[in-house]
Design goal:
The protein has about 180 residues and is an alpha/beta fold. The protein contains six helices and seven strands.
Length: about 180
């Protein structure tokens, strides 16, 4: 059937991306041994492991954020809020009091997202209408950059552990927040 074909096509796309990321990671590791450049660690998380990944990595991200400005920076896709609202509520039960989230969003931010921000005075959402083409949630959590794609199945995430990339993206998000 057409649905099975679409699912198979998407599964193949995810497998191809995962294979490409693994090859890329291997090449970077080989290159690292020849240079002094910091090589990022890249993890691909498929849909079936996505929620578990979020719960398992939260404490690592909290610890990493604490080494910088105590702020989770990024872009919040409203679809992520709808799909993972329970995880979002849970995170605020374990967040240290000094940490906050400053997230950009497009105009279509969901009602759930607004309610989460109203309930938690350390979760700030700034609407930026020109960001309507963003398809993923993106966080800069200390030395980690996390992309979570939820718009279609298969959902997936990519976590990049790179202090250099995280620093540069944190700077971009801070500047966008200040404008």
């Amino acid at each position: 059937s057409e649905l099975k074909s679409i699912i198979e096509y998407e599964r193949k796309q995810v497998e191809d991306r995962q294979e490409l990321l693994e090859k890329f990671s291997e090449k970077l590791a080989q290159h690292e041994s020849k240079t002094n450049y910091p090589v990022p660690e890249v993890r691909f998380i498929e849909e079936s492991k996505l929620e578990e990944f979020l719960y398992n990595r939260t404490s690592v991200w909290i610890e990493s954020v604490a080494q910088y400005d105590e702020t989770w920076w990024g872009f919040q896709d409203y679809i992520f809020v709808e799909k993972f609202s329970e995880w979002l509520k849970w995170t605020w039960t374990i967040f240290p009091a000094e940490q906050q989230a400053k997230l950009l969003s497009d105009e279509s931010a969901s009602e759930k997202g607004r309610l989460l921000s109203e309930k938690n005075k350390r979760r700030f959402i700034k609407s930026i209408p020109v960001l309507t083409d963003f398809m993923s949630t993106i966080w800069v959590n200390g030395d980690y950059v996390v992309f979570v794609y939820c718009r279609e199945t298969p959902m997936h995430a990519v976590e990049i552990h790179s202090s250099l990339l995280a620093r540069d993206l944190r700077t971009i998000f801070k500047k966008m927040w200040e404008e």
